[in-house]
Amino acid sequence: MPFLDHLEELRWRIIKSLIAVVIFTIISFAFSDQILDFLLLTTKNLKHQLQLQVLKVQTVFIIKLELALIAGIMLSLPVIFYQIWAFVAPGLLENERKYVVPVITFATISFIVGAAFAFFVIIPFALDFFLSLVPENVKNNIALDFYFGFVARIVLVFGIVFELPVVSLLLTKLGLLTPQFLRKYRRYAIVVIFVLAAILTPPDPTTQIMLAVPLLLLFEVSIWISYFFAKKPKKE
To answer: Which of 47, 53, 99, 217 has a 20 to 30 A CA-CA distance from 2?
Structure first.
């Protein structure tokens, strides 16, 4: 295809992905109250008392819109991954296209696992840690929008970084990545991982380490995935 036709194809893939996000966002907004209640579960079993408060009239409405958008994006992930794959697939060989369903499934599950790990493990631990630093004569009153901003950021970051094995699988099948390359630059990857953890998380060492450790494990998993799916040299 000519270059402009590739751009036209990409434009339609993006439009279809955005349409899916809009549709799922509208559906999610209808269940925004249930989503809001679910996200408040992390405050139920904390060791330290946390009191959430609303400081602006429009806060709850804005939060519901943001939650609906995030839920819409998460529900649209299979569609988004498929559109990305459909754009790349024409340049692949026939035997490489059979991985479309496993890759999309693997990518979706990886994001869900990362988001669940952040919500049920990282966030309660981080909240208890931060709340334990507050003096006894000071109440833990936190604005509702700040709380959800904190939760949404960590959940999205962990969901994205858990896609590392998927990226490794895809690049390996395309012949752009080898397990030898990953092993060779493992030391540099460790430095990059800690730098990314410092950038993507709130400015505290605890959350940064709790992101860096899973990233290191995911990097090792990516090496094994790359080794498993790498093309083996044919025997004489």
So the answer is: 99
Residue 77, both tokens = 């992930």
Q: Any bridge partners for residue 53, and if so which? A: 143
Cα angle 145-114-184, degrees, rounded to a multiple of 5: 125
By residue range, what is the domain housing residue 175?
Answer: 163-231
Q: In the structure encoding, which two tokens stand for residue 176, read together? A: 């752009």
Distance CA 127, CA 39 (A): 13
Radius of gyration, alpha carbons of the chain = 21
Residue 107, CB-side half-sphere exposure with 13 Å CA sphere:
23
Are residues 92 and 57 part of one domain? yes
Residues 121 and 194 in one domain: no
Which has more pLDDT, 19 or 56?
19
Q: What is the pTM of this model?
A: 0.73
Same domain for 204 and 100: no
Token pair listed for 177: 């990545």
**Exposed (0-12), middle (13-18) or buried (19+): which is 101, by Cβ within 10 Å?**
exposed
| Closest listed residue to residue 162, CA positions, set 204, 122, 205 | 122
Domain boundary among 138, 162, 186: 162
Is the pLDDT assigned to residue 234 strictly greater than 60?
no
